[in-house]
Amino acid sequence: MTFVLCLMSWGVCAQEEPQKEVVIINPFTHTDAVSDAVSDNVRAAVLSGFSDRNRFYVVDALTDATLSKLYANRNYEDVVNDDNWKSESEAAYKSLGAKSLVIGTANNAAATTKRDDDGDMVYYWTVAFSLKVYNIMDGTMTASEDITVSELSPSSSDAAFASAMKAISIRMKSFVDDHFKFETYILELGEVDKKGNPKEIYISGGTEMGIIKGTLFDVMVNKKIGSKVTKQKIGTLLAKEVLDGVCRCTVKDGAGEIKNVFNEDPKSITIISGQNRKDKTANFFKGLTGIDVRNL
Question: For the whole model, what pTM was predicted?
């Protein structure tokens, strides 16, 4: 299905367009249980996962011309810890237009072997790390997760390690969907059923926001309770066709209420991104550091 949109003709276009966010990935720290090489690869896998999500302008603090100066000739643990990152680096972060800062720590990494039922050797890698996300504007922590991946390979420890890095990169997709939601709005109601309720809805935002077929969205409406205004979920959308700037969705539930609210006050509705039902395989090799597991 092909459609051409004249967005300026729609009254709802006064609503704010979804935009990619600038996210900074800081250098990672690590415990004594993790080597520099493993920590670097964990960070590279996290970077790759964020990039593959295609929702951000990802800034690598170690290679960016502005931020790399912060780490020259000094111990980077003194820059990126939870207590002082804001006072040390806030001006540089803001100069890049960044909203969020990701700080990571590689906590543990272990390579093990075990024989299977046939007596053949199986190689395992288990990696544990933590991620924290800060709002650069006000310094608040907006997300914190401890993540552990464990992968195996019948061929080699190197292959098991590569599988663990791939798992980290893929795991970042759900981390992003959980902690970096974006808001958008309904462009128009589409095809209707026999009751006149929409079977399809067009929303603003498409491939440029990392939306793919199968992405779920919550339909929220402003609701006043006393002197407070809160958001209440009234439906769910599922992305079916994704173009640049526009997404055609099917209505999974709430069609009648969505129609009524949209016809009465379209600006009171907010569409909030959720999880992807189907994730593309991450390009996790991008940026991984060359490593010989015999030296870990």
Answer: 0.79
